[in-house]
Amino acid sequence: MRILVTGGAGLIGSHLVDKLMEKEKSEVIVADNYFTGSKDNLKKWIGHPRFELIRHDIIRPLFVEVDQIYHLACPASPIFYKYNSVKTIKTNVMGTLNMLGLAKRLRARILFTSTSEVYGDSLEHPQKETYWGNVNPIGVRSCYDEGKRMAETLMFDYHRQYGIEIRIARIFNTYGPRMNIDDGRVVSNFIAQAIRNEPLTVQLPGTQTRSFCYVLDLVDGLTQLMEGTDTGPINLGNPGEFTMNELAKAVQELINPEVQISEVENTPDDPRQRKPDITKAKERLGVPRT
Ligand SMILES: O=c1ccn([C@@H]2O[C@H](COP(=O)(O)OP(=O)(O)O[C@H]3OC[C@@H](O)[C@H](O)[C@H]3O)[C@@H](O)[C@H]2O)c(=O)[nH]1
């Protein structure tokens, strides 16, 4: 089995590659442009006969021969995806079209990593896959959330029109080893600030919630989704829900009781509540690890 992983040098991608490489018969090809990913995350596989690393930006077509595609490529942290918003849209739309074109030519199964951000500033709580979302189409986050929504549409149209085998995961806020210290997401920000003895920057109001998923659990969900029969979309996340005030206090207690917590201005369109309904994931993918 030969498997392509786009964005395979990133946080989730590189842990996924570790898992795929553990299977003795799989060959893994990673395509990454290193915008947020790093070769360092894959260094143990470089030179391995079943592993290949390509510097490639998927907004351009890629010609390889594979049986499965894990299509992860796209910056995930809000500061990075907003940095070059047009490029984020191109990655999600043109990149996904290119990967679907590849899947169509090869009759390969393709899994797309979508996001909880497709639910926007959700009016339903927790978020079920059947909820259509409350998304600002012209806001600063739209390049990402609308980009991912369009990519989901493309996945389903290729599935209906050409019979491509698709899988869609909607990923909630994920953390774990190999996260870039300057990633910008809240877990790594607070931990880095606590270590540097800088105030933890809780963006107002501080009562907004998130559900944080450990990267290895997430990777288990991705491989189960790929190997199962359900197209998705399926929420992949941890249902434990915390306010940003609670998270800051937990980091303060665990890492640096002396560190200050400061309230700072938030960015536009920040979702107020986010928690996955994981009923469907439990039914279709089995019981998650605890
Ligand atoms: O320093 C910080 C950073 C962030 N925050 C807050 O923490 C919360 C979480 O923000 P993050 O930047 O970690 O990211 P978000 O949860 O908004 O989006 C994330 O989750 C879903 C994924 O699919 C996305 O790729 C990812 O960006 C927000 O409410 C934000 O306002 C802080 O309070 N302080």
From TrEMBL:
Q: Where is the composition biased (Basic and acidic residues)?
A: 269-290
Which pathway, per its entry?
A: Nucleotide-sugar biosynthesis; UDP-alpha-D-xylose biosynthesis; UDP-alpha-D-xylose from UDP-alpha-D-glucuronate: step 1/1
Top EC category: lyase
Q: Which cofactor does it need?
A: NAD(+)
Family to which this protein belongs: Belongs to the NAD(P)-dependent epimerase/dehydratase family. UDP-glucuronic acid decarboxylase subfamily.
The NAD-dependent epimerase/dehydratase domain is annotated at: 3-234
Q: What is this protein called?
A: UDP-glucuronate decarboxylase
Reactions this protein catalyses:
UDP-alpha-D-glucuronate + H(+) = UDP-alpha-D-xylose + CO2
Q: What are the EC numbers? A: 4.1.1.35
Q: Which domain of life is it from?
A: Eukaryota
**Which keywords does UniProt give here?**
Cytoplasm, Decarboxylase, Lyase, NAD
| One cellular-component annotation, GO | cytoplasm
